[in-house]
């Protein structure tokens, strides 16, 4: 049975977001260090990016490093940053070959200079690509993003360019790191944790959640298909009644 054929490509989520979790546990199960789990997760990233682009998903956002992840042991943080640099360097050509544009959301100024440099180059080199946008959430948290948006709007009010009473939901959205992107219709979280962990707090308001026990390094194309098929079986009511939707 080919799962890919069960995906209705006329009803694809435009934007899929993923909390890639469970690398540490995956390594521990194999008697390895946590960084072994992070390194082994690259295959899952590659497969997910490829599968999403092949299907025709427009935006794929991967939660790669949260604001809170800075509190991990310094050795893990620096190994993750190093892995980020080498992976981006290695994968940029493949992104170009697959016509995928790279973007980031998050406080990227707080990343080591080498990461910032590597990211800037990859973003620039892939900026003309149009099949899919791959968004890496790096040093990202929903509360950081909302605070940034509030500061931007408040300074407009301070400068007299905007009245507080005129602030609308779309203005808030336009001041988030995800400005211009559709909200994700589907959020996937691996490793079975039933929480959002400060990801896309505004954007996930009506997102369908799909949580799998699978640990992230084991995630493959077929698991993405499974998640999309599950999403396609759901009834998204947005507060309405089921009867209203059938009309
Ligand atoms: C996700 O895996 C990767 C990052 C948060 C960077 P974890 O490192 O959180 O793995 P677990 O949750 O400890 O298994
Ligand atoms: C969420 O995973 C962040 C990323 C996947 C980058 P964590 O492993 O940091 O989440 P918590 O701390 O268990 O909620
Ligand atoms: Mg975790």
Automatic annotation (TrEMBL):
<feature type="binding site">
    <location>
        <position position="21"/>
    </location>
    <ligand>
        <name>Mg(2+)</name>
    </ligand>
</feature>
<feature type="binding site">
    <location>
        <position position="70"/>
    </location>
    <ligand>
        <name>substrate</name>
    </ligand>
</feature>
<comment type="subunit">
    <text>Homodimer.</text>
</comment>
<feature type="binding site">
    <location>
        <begin position="195"/>
        <end position="197"/>
    </location>
    <ligand>
        <name>substrate</name>
    </ligand>
</feature>
<feature type="binding site">
    <location>
        <begin position="22"/>
        <end position="25"/>
    </location>
    <ligand>
        <name>substrate</name>
    </ligand>
</feature>
<dbReference type="GO" id="GO:0045547">
    <property type="term" value="F:ditrans,polycis-polyprenyl diphosphate synthase [(2E,6E)-farnesyl diphosphate specific] activity"/>
</dbReference>
<keyword id="KW-0460">Magnesium</keyword>
<comment type="function">
    <text>Catalyzes the condensation of isopentenyl diphosphate (IPP) with allylic pyrophosphates generating different type of terpenoids.</text>
</comment>
<dbReference type="Pfam" id="PF01255">
    <property type="entry name" value="Prenyltransf"/>
</dbReference>
<dbReference type="InterPro" id="IPR036424">
    <property type="entry name" value="UPP_synth-like_sf"/>
</dbReference>
<feature type="binding site">
    <location>
        <position position="208"/>
    </location>
    <ligand>
        <name>Mg(2+)</name>
    </ligand>
</feature>
<feature type="binding site">
    <location>
        <position position="26"/>
    </location>
    <ligand>
        <name>substrate</name>
    </ligand>
</feature>
<keyword id="KW-0479">Metal-binding</keyword>
<feature type="binding site">
    <location>
        <begin position="66"/>
        <end position="68"/>
    </location>
    <ligand>
        <name>substrate</name>
    </ligand>
</feature>
<dbReference type="InterPro" id="IPR018520">
    <property type="entry name" value="UPP_synth-like_CS"/>
</dbReference>
<dbReference type="GO" id="GO:0000287">
    <property type="term" value="F:magnesium ion binding"/>
</dbReference>
<feature type="active site" description="Proton acceptor">
    <location>
        <position position="69"/>
    </location>
</feature>
<dbReference type="GO" id="GO:0016094">
    <property type="term" value="P:polyprenol biosynthetic process"/>
</dbReference>
<keyword id="KW-0808">Transferase</keyword>
<feature type="binding site">
    <location>
        <position position="34"/>
    </location>
    <ligand>
        <name>substrate</name>
    </ligand>
</feature>
<protein>
    <recommendedName>
        <fullName>Isoprenyl transferase</fullName>
        <ecNumber>2.5.1.-</ecNumber>
    </recommendedName>
</protein>
<feature type="active site">
    <location>
        <position position="21"/>
    </location>
</feature>
<dbReference type="InterPro" id="IPR001441">
    <property type="entry name" value="UPP_synth-like"/>
</dbReference>
<comment type="similarity">
    <text>Belongs to the UPP synthase family.</text>
</comment>
<feature type="binding site">
    <location>
        <position position="72"/>
    </location>
    <ligand>
        <name>substrate</name>
    </ligand>
</feature>
<feature type="binding site">
    <location>
        <position position="38"/>
    </location>
    <ligand>
        <name>substrate</name>
    </ligand>
</feature>
<feature type="binding site">
    <location>
        <position position="189"/>
    </location>
    <ligand>
        <name>substrate</name>
    </ligand>
</feature>
């Amino acid at each position: 049975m080919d799962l890919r054929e069960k995906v209705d490509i006329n009803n694809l989520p435009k934007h899929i977001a993923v909390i890639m979790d469970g690398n540490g546990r995956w390594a521990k199960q194999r008697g390895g260090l946590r960084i072994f789990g992070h390194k082994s997760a690259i295959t899952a990233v590659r497969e997910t990016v490829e599968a999403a682009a092949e299907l025709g998903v427009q935006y794929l956002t991967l939660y790669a490093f949260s604001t809170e992840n800075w509190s991990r042991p310094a050795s893990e943080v620096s190994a993750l940053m190093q892995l980020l640099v080498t992976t981006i360097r290695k994968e940029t050509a493949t992104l170009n070959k697959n016509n995928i544009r790279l973007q980031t959301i998050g406080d990227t100024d707080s990343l080591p200079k080498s990461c910032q440099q590597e990211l800037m180059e990859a973003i620039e080199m892939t900026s003309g690509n149009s099949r899919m946008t791959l968004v890496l959430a790096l040093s990202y948290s929903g509360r950081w993003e909302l605070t940034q948006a509030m500061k931007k709007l408040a300074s407009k009010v301070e400068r007299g360019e905007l009245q507080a009473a005129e602030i609308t939901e779309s203005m808030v959205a336009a001041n988030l790191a995800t400005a211009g992107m559709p909200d994700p219709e589907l959020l996937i979280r691996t490793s079975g944790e039933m929480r959002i962990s400060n990801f896309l707090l505004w954007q996930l308001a009506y997102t369908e959640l799909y949580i799998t026990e699978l640990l992230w390094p084991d995630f493959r194309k077929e698991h993405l298909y499974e998640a999309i098929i599950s999403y396609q079986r759901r009834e998204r009511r947005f507060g309405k009644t089921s009867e209203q939707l059938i009309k």
